[in-house]
Amino acid sequence: MAEDLVLDTAIRDWVLIPLSVVMVLIGVLRYFVSKLMRSDQTPDVKIVKEGQLIIRARNLRAAANFIPAKSFRARKNYYSNEENGLLHVPKGQAQNPQAQMFSDPNMAMDMMKKNLSMIIPQTLTFAWVNFFFSGFVAAKIPFPLTQRFRGMLQNGIDLSTVDVSYVSSRSWYFLNLFGLRGLFSLILGEENATDDTQRMMQMSGFGFDPTKSLGAEKDNLDIVQHDWALPKFEQRAEAVLKKLVS
Amino acid sequence: MDKNKSSDALDEIPTFNVDNIQNNTRIINYSRTFMSIIGGVIAGILGVNGLTGIVFYFLVMAITTAGLAAKTEFSVHSYFDSWNRIVFDGILGGLMSFVLFWTYPYSLMS
């Protein structure tokens, strides 16, 4: 029972295309604004130190097979020794950096600014869409959905016999929101702030990073099996030379 | 992607050059996004409907995978760290862009 509604070209000109164009422009604007606002961030010395320590431990883990067993053990002990090993964080101090980070006014302001710069354009655009573009069929989505989606997708349309494929402009807004992420990654390069799910994961990970990852690194280092690569290198050199000569 | 081999040819001990792996992975993502956008527009223009469209999307992804595999001259291990990268990475992410760019010509053609 799908009546074939024909969508007005006026709708196409004045709703679909302007909405997409506006969203792309807002995304670009947000990217540049976030780049401008990111200028002043002097990182905390302690946090940088811990980060570098983790990187060193990780390098040790990755290249463990290239150094002799004794020197590997010596390095491992330096990191994970119980009393004064670098990675060993006593339980009492584990809470401190996190609390310190959240009460540090500078960093809290920074996170709030980033949060706001994400939420405000989305809210504004959504309100704009609702105000201007409600009450008519905006687009036709190509695949069939069940009746339960009707309330979500056809919000302004009060006829209940219209096929669920015809959606209102609110759902066009959401479709644009998700679909333009790929486009942004193409035109803005890697460092774009338009992907909010990614950034929320980043932000929630940042607060716990120093304390838990030290313990994680220590455990990982304990797990590593040392398998010295030198004995196999002769065969490897032979194979390489053979390939070169032949 | 040609010149940036990320691991040595004869390995029992695989070593990875991290920068090159990242670069190659980024190239895969760009390629997939681009192909999903183009595929979406094509699907919309052809008037592809419903489930056929989803199948079309996976077909486009398979073509992309084949293209990437051919570009690495089928020796995937010298450019990436596992097969999964070249086959599975970024497929679901491209789906949303595909649907958006599919809806566009489809509804414009009323």
Automatic annotation (TrEMBL), chain A:
It comes from Erythranthe guttata (Yellow monkey flower). Belongs to the EMC3 family. SMART domains: DUF106 (SM01415). GO terms for cellular component: EMC complex. The keyword Protease does not apply. This is ER membrane protein complex subunit 3. It is a multi-pass membrane protein. It holds the Pfam family EMC3_TMCO1.
TrEMBL record, chain B:
It is a multi-pass membrane protein. It is found in: Endoplasmic reticulum membrane. Pfam families: EMC6. The chain crosses the membrane at residues 30-48, 86-104. It comes from the Eukaryota. Keywords: Endoplasmic reticulum, Membrane, Transmembrane, Transmembrane helix. InterPro entries: Emc6 (IPR008504), EMC6-like (IPR029008). One of its GO terms (cellular component) is EMC complex. Belongs to the EMC6 family. This is ER membrane protein complex subunit 6.
